[in-house]
Amino acid sequence: MSQILDGAKVAKESLERTAARVRALVAAGGVVPCLATVLCGDDPASATYVKMKAKRCEAVGMRSLRVDLPAATTTAELVARIAALGADPGVHGILLQHPVPRHIDERAAFEAIPPSKDVDGVTIHSLGAMALGLPGFAACTPAGIMRLLAAYQVPLSGRRAIVIGRSPILGKPMAYLLTGADATVTLAHSRTRDLPALVAEAELVVAAVGKARFVHGEWVREGAVVVDAGYNEGNVGDVDYEPAAARASLITPVPGGVGPMTIATLIEQTATAAERLLRSA
Ligand code: NAP
To answer: Residue 37's beta-bridge partner residues?
Structure first.
């Protein structure tokens, strides 16, 4: 039976470290890091995520600024609002909650975030920097997964990894980060053939598909490390947990695995953005 990759515990420790950095920032220059969250539309799940992020900000002594926009907002209006936050010296990080209403050009909205405030790692600049292994803010979910793997000293160099899902916020950046850590990475997607055989070869499986219990337990290689980034209705992940846990050496629970690490990484990166601003002042 496997051991749990306890994201809730590792995230709590990370938030405690960030709280200490925030106290030091306030003492050094009176700067209180501020994360602006932009929610466009009335998706209840998105509203819950935004609320959770604001709560975590406050728990570490940071400010959060919530911008709620109606579903009928145009791309131009959203871009202008984000650009104004970009120009506001009191705002250190900007998060545009995904997904936005369908009529909005999400890429244009993301690109309105200046790279220095892109603490969610969603811009082309951030993704490019991550792909090249250059400094910048990483996409929070894959970066949170890397921190979780590091906390459990999971060896990556030379290991075979499979990432299932190639979204720009999750699967693709995950593949970049694992490649940067010297893993040999297969990036699978909806056109991939013979997925079970590819999963069976992998020493690390990252599921980022958005389909409940998509990865069958019997696909998983004995002793593999399994990270389930999926979050589906009914608190269910993308991995069929019980049979996968019976074969894996380490596995993330859902909830309590990847989710808390994503938020802790966002908060940590907001503190970093404020520290950089103070240093450059
Ligand atoms: P997404 O944008 O919908 O991407 C899903 C990916 O899965 C796509 O690349 C798609 O391939 C691939 N896929 C779909 N069917 C497949 C199949 N049959 N075989 C192999 N690949 C398949 O989703 P996302 O935003 O990356 O999110 C994925 C999951 O992670 C969701 O459950 C989401 O809720 C969760 N999530 C969790 C967090 C967190 O903090 N815990 C953060 C973000 C997302 P194509 O590219 O070929 O279409």
So the answer is: 66, 95
In three-state form (DSSP H/G/I as H, E/B as E, the rest C), the secondary structure along 199-246 is HHHCCEEEECCCCCCCECHHHCCCCCEEEECCCECCCECCECHHHHHH
Please give the Cα distance from 5 to 27 (Å, whole number): 35
> 142 alpha carbon to ligand 1 midpoint, in Å?
12
Any atom of ligand 1 within 6 Å of the Cβ of 144: no
CA 245/CA 239 separation, integer angstroms: 9
Residues 6+ apart with CB under 8 A from 8: 256, 257, 260
- In tens, the pLDDT along 178-203 reads 999 999 999 999 999 999 999 999 99
Among candidate residues 120, 228, 238, 240, the one labeled active-site is 120
Instruction: Give bridge partners of residue 66 from the DSSP assignment.
Output: 37
The neighbour count for residue 193, using CB atoms within 10 Å, is: 7
pLDDT score of 82 more than 80: yes
Token pair belonging to 222: 């004995």
Spatial CA neighbour of 168 closest among 124, 202, 132: 124
- Asked if residues 281 and 29 have their Cβ atoms less than 8 Å apart, the reply is yes
Q: Which helix (H) or strand (E) holds 164?
A: strand 160-164
| Among candidate residues 249, 186, 193, the one with its CA nearest the CA of residue 221 | 249
φ/ψ of residue 208, rounded to 5: -145, 60
Does the beta carbon of 250 lie inside 6 Å of ligand 1?
no
How much of the chain is helix, strand and coil, in % rounded to 5? 45, 15, 35
For residues 120 and 224, give the distance between their C-alpha atoms in angstroms, rounded to a whole number. 29
Q: How far apart are CA 47 and CA 41, in angstroms?
A: 9
The pTM of this model reads 0.96
